[in-house]
Amino acid sequence: MKNKKLMQLACEKWGNESQRRMGIEECAELIQALCKYERNQHLDAALNIVEEMVDVELMLEQLKLMFPEYESNADRIRGYKLQRLSELLGVEFVR
Ligand SMILES: [Mg+2]
What residue spans define the domains of the chain? Predict the structure, then answer.
């Protein structure tokens, strides 16, 4: 089964609201992992960050399905943000 279908099944099984709340939880777990790493920069702490990054990525995939506006707007917004970042850094942004 492909990732996208798996994400759709998760949203259907537990419901969009529950998955949005899970997204909040996973973001919080990533925040906590990043905070812990600042206290103790060991391999285990780094691996915990990676695990939480993957959890957040999976929740983002589900959020993209819930918010179809993502598909038609994300590239434009990303381009704007990258352009702004490149200006802050004083470098040329190449698309
Ligand atoms: Mg997690």
Answer: 3-69
